[in-house]
Amino acid sequence: MNTEVSPGLPFEPTLIRRYDRPGPRYTSYPAAPHFDSGFGERELRAFAARSNATAAPRPLSLYVHVPFCESPCFYCGCNRIITRDLSRGQRYVEDLLVEIGLAAQLFDPRREVAQLHLGGGTPNFLGREALEQLLGGIGRTLRLSEAADRDFSIELDPRTVPEPPEHYAATLARLGFNRASLGVQDFDPEVQRAVNRIQSIEQTLDLIDACRDRGFRSINVDLIYGLPRQTPERFARTLRTVISARPDRVAVYGYAHLPKLFKAQRRIDAAALPDAAGRLELLRLAIEELSASGYCYIGMDHFALPDDELVRAQEAGRLQRNFMGYTTHADCDLIGVGASAISHIGGSYSQNYRELKSWQAAVEARRLPVWRGLALSFDDRVRGAVIARLMCQGEIDTAQIAADCGIDFEAYFADELRRLEPLTADGLVRFAGGKIIATPAGRLLLRNVAMCFDHYLTAPPGAADPVPLSRAV
User: Fold this and answer.
1) Buried b (16+ CB within 10 A) or exposed e, 223-234
2) Mean pLDDT score across all residues of the chain
3) How far apart (Å, rounded) are the C-alpha atoms in residues 40 and 369?
4) Against a cut of 0.85, is the pTM above it?
5) Which residue of 116, 292, 314, 458 could cross-link 152, Cys pair, CB 3.0 to 4.6 Å?
């Protein structure tokens, strides 16, 4: 039975349950676990030089990872350090500015930073002075864009903003931030206690209002379904509270319970997690509530209001996806700084050391702190282009890919087209006008469609143990 939850976005529990299997989230292709320690500072420098040498050097996107949190959220799978010692943030900023200085030397100084994002961890762990020092140092080292469409964003934990919301929002606006993403996950007290994240509705809404009052162009709210103690009734209250605040974007992630991989998750009572049917009901509820309230489904857990830039970019075919999620800045080289941060320069990926001590040691020795990376092969680039179009636009223009990459699409992807046949039979994919199109039902399962083109998921016998992956829903 089909359960229509919004115009054009059907929810089919039986079909979704059948395809609910582990898979990558495709913020990159290949995914980070496939990066190699043989890729280091020398290789990164070479790719940056090639990027500078292009006829029209691309703008830059700067991601800054701040790993500190004051308390552990048990569901978290991010790279973070639990501490209440705020002085560690000050020292970290000093090291960040050294790394940013090293990275800046790799790029033509005329290249502008069109996108800046502070993620974590908890970026607002940094007090006002540390944040001002960081932004001031970035502005002296790199050329920050002054264009109206620049994106300067920060992830915020409403529980730990270091001053009253209206004052902190004023500080952020003065420093140039125009977007904010607030972690909520769930407002229900029982759920919050189960995941060790006690956060009031008032804290959250006050911060949203303060950012809006200071002229922020966009507010995002993060929610998670599948958490312990969640029920449809409780999650519905959270959804309606969030919707009442009218954030421009809402991300609704499925909780991935991987306690062998993430130590904090061992504190979660697995018996309190919703079962498979319960998770599907929570997902259905989120889609229904957000769609009924006018939000458009972008893809991969993300919703946005119709006038949001993500919606317009998707309609124009300019939407992109990277380690920061969906973005409208398609033409940037991404520089990642801070422990564990990932860069995407030209045809390469590189990741910094995850451990803080290793990262600091490299930076203090005036070395780029590259831990591992990957020079993309021709096949990686072709498949990456296919998967990117699918994840962002929900369709693959086979003629365009063939022209861009110089391949015969049907011959190159003969095996992959056969893998798509069951998905076509199940109504997730259709072929029309030279395009492979995810149907409305298939839009909720884009990861499954993309996996058909993923060479790294077909490892030969005797290969290393597979990397643990989150489930599709």
Assistant:
1) bbbbbbbbeeeb
2) 92
3) 8
4) yes
5) 116
